Amino acid sequence: MPVRKLHIANQAGRDATVAMETAKSPKGAKLGHPELELEFRQFLAAGPDGLHDTLSDKLGEDYGQALIDGDPDVDTELVGRSLGRTSPVYLSSTGEVLYATPSVVEVIFAPNGEERDRRAPTDTEANVNDQLPVRWTGRAMPRRDVARRFAFKRTIQLKHVDGLTYDYLYAMAKELGDKDEVVLIGGGPKGRQPLVFQINGTPYRGFLEGRVQGDKYKLLLHLSNLELKTPEEA
Question: For the whole model, what pTM was predicted?
Answer without folding.
Answer: 0.67
